[in-house]
TrEMBL record:
Belongs to the ABC transporter superfamily. ABCG family. Eye pigment precursor importer (TC 3.A.1.204) subfamily. The lineage of its organism: Eukaryota, Metazoa, Ecdysozoa, Arthropoda, Hexapoda. This is ABC transporter domain-containing protein. GO terms for cellular component: plasma membrane. GO terms for molecular function: ABC-type transporter activity; ATP binding; ATP hydrolysis activity. Residues 17-256 form the ABC transporter domain. The chain crosses the membrane at residues 351-369, 381-403, 424-448, 460-485, 492-514, 574-596. Keywords: ATP-binding, Membrane, Nucleotide-binding, Transmembrane, Transmembrane helix, Transport. The keyword Metal-binding does not apply. The keyword Transmembrane helix applies.
Length: 603
């Protein structure tokens, strides 16, 4: 065989997957529903297997079980054979396999090379840039992506995105690849190319299993092994060229020139439950894969070894089986990715920074001079309330809306063992912290000056600190809501929680006027600590009497101390308020982490 670019890829250790009596039961409307019913089969290394069947047959469910993505409600045995046996779900099995989901879940703002390079740093322990670049080039060439190396993922075509998803998983060279509908959304030529590429990868010793919807006749014959599902059962497993005789044996004659794949799907989708049961028995009784399992086609361990030796000369000398030892290294890679993402997505950083600054000026015009005018003390109070609610909303809502999308990327990357969740979360937090502070700086600078607050650095800093903490707490709440529920419910719960906290925060109903229950409930609202801290920052610490303008007949609050006392905002010292808000920050970030962990398990 002529040596093409794909030959530069490594040849893997051979791993076969055997499943026995697999079943999956889910709860639906308080009833148990069996989706997969006693499925048995073998997926061999060196083979490209297609799981096919009519819509709703259970293809994706079976794949989810084989990958270990679906754990609850699963019964039966799955074994992975490599001399010794490994169970699915074990860390060895996870190390040896990867799952490429139907949707690509790529971050649009990174180029193909950048995403490949950062993934290389996350997945393998090799440190040298030159070696990693060689590896990336060889994989990109293999998958025909070398021409789009410097294109951002958001600008790639569907087929290129799909190939990039495969390329990312090939970095650590797993012997087993699972793909959910890799050809969906591709035209027939791209679909054929994609399947041809998978076949070549399989021939290098990998075990490749994918679900496929309705392959053309030419594509159907590219598969080494097809596994047909109907009504949760396996109705045929064997070589694609054996399907016509198999169906003929059961009295279904495939018309001449008819695509056998289409005919098989027509028969199985129209078949009665009794016929499906008959097919299921026949599928296990006879070995229909034998015709392709001739000695010539079989990729034996020995042959794999020979191929490995002959391929090694044009392959970068990188041990791809070793993961990075240090989580610190992984953290740095993830943090850099977060910063680049923030910088390139103009809606995350640049737009928000400008809008915060402009809103500060707008509030300055609305609440003009209220910072030092004794006749406008209550207006100044309203200005701070507006600021607290504004900063809370603008941090909480985007997090609640965006996080469900990010969750899919995290789920994919975490499932394929790119990183530990706690390392990702630490990097996410470390990137969010300066962002929230920057946003608070932008808003506070313009609003503070425009409303004529006292021009003392210490007071400005105290206001800034509380504004930053508000953003941090609110964004933690947003992540928590975003990881637990969908965006619509997330924003709904976010709005409810904000209004509830607002109502007991001591602004709309002053603390001295609150009933005892609500007074104590106000401790649950970080708004009350924020307001108390903000007012103390500008009116506390021996601030001089406020000036009552000459054209005013009477100014109610010229004494800052009296103002704080009457509003009940002098109960706790400023730094205790800061301590409480910091406590809420830690609490919500921890809750967000555990809700994220919970959601990843149950997504
Ligand atoms: N969590 C669940 N709760 C209830 N029913 C489910 C659940 N997951 C899957 N099902 C049902 O199980 C059946 C098989 O679903 P599955 O997604 O595996 O089918 P499929 O063969 O991949 O279909 P398609 O080709 O349309 O994607 C479907 O009828 C589906 O509605």
């Amino acid at each position: 065989m002529e040596k093409g670019p794909i030959d530069s890829l490594h040849v893997c250790k051979a791993l076969d997957i055997e499943c026995n009596s697999l079943s999956l039961t889910v709860r639906q409307d308080k009833e148990c529903k069996k989706i997969i019913r006693g499925v048995t089969g073998t997926f061999k290394s060196g083979e490209l297997t297609a799981i096919m069947g009519p819509s709703g047959a259970g293809k994706t469910s079976l794949l989810n079980i084989l990958t270990g993505y679906q754990k609850s409600g699963v019964e039966g045995v799955i074994k992975c054979k490599n001399g010794k046996k490994t169970k699915t779900g074990s860390s060895q099995y996870k190390n040896d396999s990867c799952y490429i989901l139907q949707d690509d879940h790529l971050i649009a703002y990174f180029t193909v090379y950048e995403i490949m390079y950062s993934t290389t740093q996350l997945k393998i322990s090799e440190q040298s840039k030159e070696k990693n670049d060689l590896l990336i080039d060889s994989i990109l060439t293999t998958l025909g992506l070398e021409k789009v190396k410097n294109i951002r993922c958001g600008n790639l075509s569907g087929g290129q995105r799909k190939r990039l998803s495969i390329a990312l998983e090939l970095i650590d060279d797993p012997p087993i690849l699972f793909l959910d509908e890799p050809t969906t959304g591709l035209d027939s030529s791209s679909s054929n190319q994609c399947v041809q590429m998978l076949k070549t990868l399989a021939e290098r010793g990998r075990t490749i299993v994918c679900t496929i919807h309705q392959p053309s006749a030419s594509m159907y014959h590219l598969f080494s092994h097809v596994y047909i599902m109907a009504k949760g059962k396996c109705v045929y497993q064997g070589a694609p060229e054996n399907t016509v005789p198999y169906l003929a044996l059961h009295g279904y004659i495939c018309p001449k020139y008819h695509n056998p794949a289409d005919f098989l799907l027509e028969v199985t989708s129209d078949a009665s439950t009794q016929d499906i049961d008959k097919f299921a028995i026949a599928a296990t009784e006879t070995n229909w894969r034998s015709s392709i399992n001739s000695e010539n086609d079989k990729v034996s361990e020995k042959e794999v070894d020979i191929k490995r030796q002959s391929d090694s000369y044009d392959y970068p000398d990188v041990d791809r089986s070793k993961r990075p030892q240090s989580q610190w290294k992984v953290f740095k890679v993830l943090l850099k990715k977060q910063f680049i993402h923030q910088y390139r997505d103009w809606t995350v950083a640049k737009l928000k920074l400008v809008v915060h600054f402009l809103v500060g000026i707008f509030l300055g015009v609305t609440f003009q001079n209220c910072g030092n005018d004794a006749s406008k003390t209550l207006q100044n109070f309203s200005f701070f309330i507006t600021g607290v609610v504004y900063l809370c909303y603008t941090s909480l809502m985007p997090a609640a809306l965006r996080f469900p999308q990010e969750l899919k990327i995290i789920k994919k990357e975490h499932f394929n063992r790119w990183y530990k969740l706690r390392t990702f979360y630490a990097a996410f937090l470390a990137a969010d912290l300066p962002m929230q502070v920057l946003l608070a700086v932008s808003y506070t600078t313009s609003a503070y000056v425009a409303t004529s607050q006292p021009l003392e650095f210490s007071r400005f800093f105290m206001v800034l600190l509380i504004h930053s903490l508000i953003g941090l707490v609110a964004s933690g709440m947003g992540i928590m809501f975003g990881s637990l529920v969908n965006p619509v419910n997330g924003t709904f719960i976010g709005a409810i929680s904000t209004v509830t906290m607002l109502s007991v925060a001591g602004f709309l109903c002053f603390f001295p006027h609150m009933n005892t229950v609500f007074y104590y409930a106000s401790n649950l609202s970080y708004f009350s600590f924020s307001m108390e801290g903000l007012l103390q920052a500008v009116y506390g610490y021996n601030r001089e009497k406020l000036v009552c303008p000459e054209d005013e007949i009477f100014c109610l609050y010229t004494s800052p101390k009296q103002f704080l006392t009457e509003l009940g905002m002098d109960k706790l010292p400023y730094w205790v308020d800061v301590g409480w808000i910091t406590g809420y920050f830690i609490l919500f970030r921890l809750l967000a982490y555990y809700s994220l962990k919970f959601r990843l398990k149950h997504l």
